[in-house]
Amino acid sequence: MKRSMMEWFSAKVAMRTTLEICVAGSLLVLPISSSFAAEKPKTEVADLRYGVALYHYYQQDYIPAITELMVADARDGIQGHGNNPELIAGGLSLAFGMQNHAEQLFTQLLQDTSRPQNVRDAAWFYLGKLQYAKADWAGAASSFSRVSDKFNSDLLAEMHSLQINLQIKQNDLAPFSIKKIEQDKLSQWEPYALYNLGAANARNGDLKTAKEFFNELTAISFDGSGQSRIEYLTLMDKAHTAIGYTYLQDKSYSAAIEEFRKVRLDGMESNQALLGYGWAAIAQEKYAEAIRPWQVLQQRSLLFPAAQEALLALPFAYEKLNAPGDALREYEHAEALLAQEIDLVRDMRETLTAGELLTLVSSKPVSATMLQELEKKNEPGTLTALITDDGQNWLKLSGTSVIKTRSIYLRELFAQNDFQSAVLDLRDLLKLQKILLDWQPKLTSYTELLHQKQNWRQQKEQQVSQQSLVQKQVDMQKERDALAKRIATVKSNNDYIALADPQTRKLFAAVERSTATIERMKSAGQDTTEYENRLWVSRGILLWRAAQDFPANLAALEASLAEMDAAITATKLSHEKIASVIATGQDLQPLFARIQTQQAQVEKQLLDLNKVIDARSEKLRSKVDAQLNAHEKRLNRYLAQSHLAVARLYDAALRKQAQ
């Protein structure tokens, strides 16, 4: 089965979420009918609400996305996008761990026999993946069994590898052989399946079959580069280490040493390989040969359990070489290092409280590059736990971690699916908490807006009740009618003086009074000819002056009349509008009651949510503390063995001196 590892590493397909499968569902499998084949893929959004949901999804705002879909479904549904909206809703439910709700949505889809096969396959595949991550082995097996052979080949290969793992968990290894693995066409997942099957057979004591799977894995060649090569080398290190311990258990010590030598010294498995190398040499009574790998291992960080064991294994080898002085020195050195490491673990247990874990879980995600830079700055023994971008997708749990740490003590715990799921649950709860906290001031603002609207309405109602607008309209109408009558009189009488400027009207009034005076003088027998001539000239001049300004003054007066007409019309419309608002305006009291109900609901939900968050964070802390406690117990056990060994060597030295 030798073939290029590039085939499965260079062809690695990025894991897609359920939503991505739904949005691009036509890319998964070939169309199942000619009607599907003839249909062109959509390049536009037919329903605005579907576009809004997709926008929120691609912004990683999943709660608004599913909210948009739920609101649309509660009304008249989304039109023009087939099965996609329902699958998206199911996918989002999966993303939040709402397994029962997602299964209900998928079941509704599957009850309709007209649904395309690719829709049913995608639903059952990703439901099975989540059930697998949740350790629901029976549910995962049931979901995977419903996926057809026409499903996407890459995802089908992944599913087959997961089905192998399910049978391994049931300890059903009989059906598997090298030939069957080749027939299953596991593609990029084949090396992992070989390793898992080898490890499972080794645990069951079938060392012969275990070695067959491990050897088949190491026979795969690889000529790639970059991250793919690192993954390949790491997997090869794990395989050689596993083969070495298999030979060690089978008492084939020389063969074991040969396998341990193939492990890279800078690889993750080198510690276990160095430890196994030493024990294989000890078993052959080659004590000097055992010292070399253990001396290398002893120089490494005590975060690694293998390095802790090497602290006691090295002086044991010195004792076998009859070098009690060297052995005593190494035991005492081990005592000091182990005591220091125990203090470090205790400090970690005190520091990593429920509140600290809650802070870490709620931290803003960082990129993988930033995480690598931060990890480089830490010294061995310090703890760095960060939320990464990878943690934003439940379906990536099999390949990445939500929280990553340099601490080897917690790496095993943090790599477990149930721990990662607990972290994701807590993160989702914290997101919901933030949403509820954001809604509190919003509801308060809505209440204030309603109060303002209520006050405005009351003011308008008071205006109407006081008839202020009606009276204003009546007064304006009277003033307008008086002006119109004046204009009509002036026009009919050609009364130029009526529209003249004040000075002209004053002089003209004086002329009129003089005329009356002249009449009285004439009645008295006086000669008034000269006065009459002068008065006639003055009267003519004043009339001429008034006539010159008459057209402009009349036009200005008519313009004022038009303005008054417009003002009266506006006042009338305003009155009618206010009356209409009062008559037809929405009753605000139900809105007040609704907001009060929602405020009480948010308060209760926050109270309940805070209790759940406290309980979950404490449970998370308990898991971390239990893990650290187990490491502390192991270190204490090694320390006790060191104390006994030192006491034994001192006792032997004293007895020798006494003799």
Describe the structure.
With 659 residues, the protein is an all-alpha fold. The chain contains 27 helices and two strands. Helix 14 runs antiparallel to helix 15. The chain is elongated and about 180 Å long. The two termini are 67 Å apart. 29% of the residues are buried.
Distance, first to last CA: 67 Å
Give the uncertain stretches in residue-range form: 1-46, 79-83, 378-382, 390-400
Task: Calculate Rg over CA atoms.
Answer: 46 Å
Percent range for β-strand residues: under 5%
Helicity range of the residues?
over 70%
Shape: elongated
List the quaternary state of the chains: single chain
Spell the H/E element sequence. Answer: HHHHHHHHHHHHHHHHHHHHHEEHHHHHH
Strand order of the largest sheet: 1-2
Residue-averaged pLDDT, rounded?
76
> For the report, how would you describe the main beta sheet?
2 strands, antiparallel
What is the total tally of β strands?
A: 2
List keywords for this structure.
659 residues; two-stranded antiparallel sheet; 27 helices; elongated
